[in-house]
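Escalation from tier 1.

The customer reports that the assembly of two entities below gives different C-alpha cells on two consecutive runs. Tier 1 could not reproduce it. I'm attaching the input and our single run for tier 2 to review.
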Amino acid sequence: MSNSVGVKKDHTAKTMTSIQSSSLSILRIIRAQHIWVFLLICMLVFSFASPYFFTLNNIGNVLTQGSFIGFLAVGMTLVMLNGEIDLSVGATLALSSALAIGLQDSIGIWPAIIVALLSGAFFGFINGALVALSGIHSFIITLGSLMGIRGIVFIFTGEEALMTSDYSYTEYPEIYLGPVSLTAMIFFGFALFFQWILSKTKHGLETYAVGDNEKSAHEAGIRVRRHKVINFTLCGLLAGVAGVLLSMRLGTAEPNAARIWELWTIIAVVLGGTRLTGGYGSMWKTVGGVITLAALLNGLRLLNTPNYIELIVMGTVLVLALILDKTLTSSQSR
Amino acid sequence: MALLKKASDAAQKHGLIGGFAIFLAVVSFSSPEFLTLGNILDVIRQVSITGMIAIGVTFVVITGRLDLSVGSMLTLLTVLVVDQHNQVGPAIAIAYTLLASLLIGMVNGYLIGFMRLNSLIVTLAMLSLLQGATLFYSGGSNVNVTNPQETWFRFFGRSEFIDIPVPVWIFFFAALVGSFVLLKTNFGRWVFSIGGNETASLFSGVQTRWVVLIAYVISGFGTGLAAIIMGSRVMGAQSTIGQGYELTVLSGIILGGTSMLGGSGTIWRTVIGVTMLGFVQNGLLLLGFAYYVQWLVTWAVIILAVWIDLAAKRGRVFV
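Tier 1 run:
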C-alpha cells in the first residue's frame, strides 16, 4: 500500500515541480530521505560537543563500527522490503563467527571461513523455505530460529569463548583506504550492489511488488515464494559475512556475541525510513540509518556518557523517528 | 472412510496434546522423578512467572499487536520492588511496583493505541529505554533483600498454601480473572473485534484507542505481578534477571495456538502453552541434555505446532 502512495506522490510532485519553484522538490527530497538531515544534525551537535568527533580517524571508526550492524541491516532491508522480518540475524552472526574461529585449527582458515559463510546462507535458506512453504509468519519462524541457532552456537562452542590460535587472522581486514577500513568498504560495496539489485533487476523490482501487495503480486504471475527464499538466504549470507569479519576483528568468538543485535538492526533500518510493512524503502535509507546509529553511539561514548544514557537515547530516537515518519507521510498524502 | 477422516481431524486438532503426551511418557519412563507431584508443582511454580506475563501479553496479541518490552520491564520492576523493599518496606514497595507497571503499560498503550505507531518498534524502543532505566536506577549493581528470613514479602514466592506454592495460586487466579475478562465482558469482546477487524470495530463504535491502551496496561500489570513473585522468590535482582523473557512468553503463547495476527486465542491456551514449554524444558534437563538443547527443541516445537495448526485450518500441508 505504501508504495502505491509513493508512486502517486511522485506523479503529483512531478506536475507540481513543473509549475512551482524548485524549493518544493528540495522539500520532497528531504521528506523522502529525512535520515540524512537527521545525520547532519547529529554530526553538527557532536562536532560542537566534542573536539574528537569530527576528525578523519573518528569518522573512519564510526564507519567501521557501524559496518557490522550494517551488513545485518542490508540483509534485513531486503527481507523487510519483501514484507517479512528476520529476527535470527544476531544468532546467525554468532554462529558464523564461532565456526570461522572454531574450525580453523582442524580444516584451515579459508575453508573455515567458507563453512562459516555457508552456514549463514544455509540458515537463511531454512528460514526462507519454512516461511515460503508453511505460510507461517516470518516473525514466528525467525523467533524460533533465533533461539534454535543460538542453542547451536552454545552447543558448538561448549559455552566458552573460542580464540584464534593464528594471530595473523586478525590482520586480514587491516587494510585501509585513507581512514576507511576494508570492513567498511565491503559494507558499502554490498549496499551499492544491493541497491543496484533492488532498482535495476527483475528480482529487486518484484521484491518491492511482493512486499507491497503479496496477493496481487502472486496474481500478476510473480513467483512470490522464490523471491522470499532468495532474500532470506541473502540475509543469512550477509549475517555470515558480518560474523566472519567480526571474528577477524576480535580474534575471538563468544557464544553470546551479537545478542539483541537483531533489535539494533531493526532500529537502524526503521530509522532509515524503510517500512516494516514492506514495499517501501531503499538501501540508501538503510545506509543512512546505519551511519546515524553508529554516529550517535560513537558521539555519546566520546562525551563519556554512562551507558544507560545510550539505551535511553536510542529508545527515544526510535520513537521520535517513528512519529516523524508518521507525520511526514500523513502530510504527504494530504 | 468417515471414521478415518474423523480420526485425522482429531489428530490434527489434538496433535499437539498427543505429541506432548508421548513426550511425557518417554521422559517419565527414563526419569522416575519426572511425574512426581513434587516435580510437577516445581515446574508449574517455575512457569508461573512466565505465565503471569503471558496472560497479560495474550490480550495484546489478540488485538493483533506485540509486546516485546515485558522482559526488560520484568527486570526493572524486580529491581524496583527489591530495592524499595529495603527502603520503604514491602507494602509500599509493592504499591510502587504495580503503579510503575501500570504507568509503563500506559505509555506503551498511548504510543500504540492513540498515536497509532507500530507496536513492534515501540515496544522494542521501550525494551531499550527500560534497560537504560534499570541501569540508571541500580547503577548496574545487584540488589538484595536485607532480611529475607523475617519479611512477610517472602509469602509471594517462597510460601505454600494448602501444600501448593503461592505463585501457583496467584497464577491460577490470574488465569481465572483474565479468562473471565476476556470471555465475559464487553472489553474482552472489543479486544477480539479489534484483532479481527480494526476498521470495522472503529466504525461500529468501539473505542479502539482505549481498548488497545488498556490491553497494554493489562500486559504491564501482569508483568508487575510477575516481578513481585520473582523478587520474593529470588530475594534479589540483577540487571539481567528478565533478559529473554519476552521470547519465552511469546513462545508459550504461540505454542498455545493464539494467532499472532490477532482475533483469536484464549487465556487457557496460553496457560497450556506456557506450562507445556515448562515441562519440555524440565524434561530435557532431567533426561540429562545440556541446557541449550532446550532452545533447539523449542524452535522445532514452535514451528511444528503452528504448522500443524495452520495445515489443519487450510486442509493442506503447504501453502
